[in-house]
Specification:
Chain lengths: 265, 265
DNA sequence: ATATGTGAAGGGTTTCACAGCC
DNA sequence: GGCTGTGAAACCCTTCACATAT
């Protein structure tokens, strides 16, 4: 209830399932590549292979957009590029601001994939006064004090947060108050936002942790499942847990104080 | 069929649903924060709020791991931290290599969230000879020629690809041949890998495109749905599409050649 | 009294398989 | 003949609601 909703269907769109929306950018990328090679048409099979999905899924996805293919032939590449671009809202350009110009923020500012998809970096914002005025990716960094002004005068509705976790919620609140209604969050924190604001998150270390999970399973399989240790330990083990957890915690906290970057509000 | 499987259940784990695995890192983060504040126990309600999920989901998730809570009381924070860490395989440390030390690669090398979760950056690898020997995040960059040697001698099983899209598949092939079985891909390409290798991808621009989709819907709602334009256009419109697509493409390709970073193989 | 653990219901997503159209 | 578009089946995930345990 008090929890910030992290991911809403945003008015349930117009019947296009969320899972489909999430794949449209993939199709678009594959189609753009084909378009650059001047390929006129593709079959669902070919396009699916290029996008890394299966063809039945692709056809179902496209069926939500309309009937854009030709039976017995396939899809017109240029036509589909246009339709998907329009559906995604990429026929207009979206000014975005990036807040937090550290290593990651700078990398994002330099990332070609943004500009190449209709996203224009309208401003770079950082809380460090020493950063103000410095050019990053050809754009002068502005101080956080300017945030509201920048959002307002540029009509920015999409914000990217690349600050340390501790600052993220505060920055988020200011962005939202200034009129931003979509946020891409790179800080490892759960953001709380009012209804009507969309948040998507990218957490670099979470992806690695998911890989580690599967990697561990692979290793365990070689000599058969070591299910003895994996089986639900009986509650008596909890007594020993203080030590075990301390050992783990010790590992995690590591040699130096790297926790600050991970500490939520 | 010829398509590289991008996301496999990897031997179907031991019955822990993929969706649950993907949330374990979230719980772990929230629990770590509580642990640092020396909170001894949490209820599913509190923890769920901190992790940004609903409490029934959290309880179901935990039920796959075992019965780690106490009815009427809640969960022991330290105990849960340990159990989830173990389940994710974070009680051991994972050497990882990062290939492609551009802006993003450097940001990843500097990212505290890796080291703080048991991931150790064993090496940074780049194809540019001029980069060789340069220290990034305190680690000397090594040339791609060393790749196989580095993987082998460090027992690396997780690789991070942050190269331009055009180089990604090639790098991926070499990583896999050298023994890497889990790959985190930041390059905007579909990677093809043999069975038994897991790939997870993070595409920065895809997330923005999904936000743009919802943002567009919000804007459209204000004056009622402009479903006229959104309705499946009849095929005659395809004739005009060449121009429309060109206009879009023109926008996308932008002022300068920013496409190289996005061009798949 | 309070909060977990879990069958059962519900909703969404993927896959199948084939009718329909070129 | 070949390929799209789509009902129907299968599957997975989420949510509900309450039995169960402390």
């Amino acid at each position: 209830m008090a929890t910030g909703r992290t991911h809403r269907p945003a008015t349930r769109s117009r019947g296009i399932p969320e899972a489909t929306v999430a794949r449209l950018p993939l199709y678009l990328r594959a189609l753009t590549a084909l378009s650059e090679r001047s390929v006129p048409t593709v079959s669902s099979e070919e396009l699916a292979a290029a996008a890394g999905v299966n063809s039945a899924k692709l056809r179902k996805d496209f069926s939500y957009l309309g009937s854009y293919g030709t039976r017995g032939v396939g899809y017109d590449v240029e036509y589909l590029v246009y339709q998907i671009s329009r559906e995604l809202g990429l026929t207009q350009d979206w000014p975005v601001v990036i807040v937090g110009i550290g290593n990651l923020g700078a990398a994002l500012a330099n990332y070609g994939g943004f500009a190449s998809r209709g996203f224009r970096v309208a401003a770079l914002i950082d809380a460090d006064p020493a950063m103000a005025g410095k050019p990053v990716a050809g754009i002068a960094v502005q101080h956080t004090d300017e945030l509201e002004h920048i959002i307002g005068s540029n009509g920015v509705s999409i914000g990217v947060i690349a600050t340390p976790a501790g600052a993220a919620q505060q920055v988020c609140d200011r962005l939202v108050a200034a009129g931003v209604t979509s946020i891409l969050n790179f800080a490892p924190t759960v953001l709380t936002v009012p209804d009507g604001v969309d948040v998507r998150k990218v957490d670099l270390s979470i992806e690695l942790q998911i890989l580690a999970f599967h990697e561990q399973r692979k290793a365990g399989e070689e000599g058969g499942p070591e299910s003895g240790a994996a089986a639900p330990a009986d509650r008596a083990e909890a007594a020993a847990v203080g030590d075990a957890a301390a050992a783990v915690g010790g590992d995690r906290k590591g040699p130096d104080g790297d926790v600050p970057a991970v500490m939520p509000a």
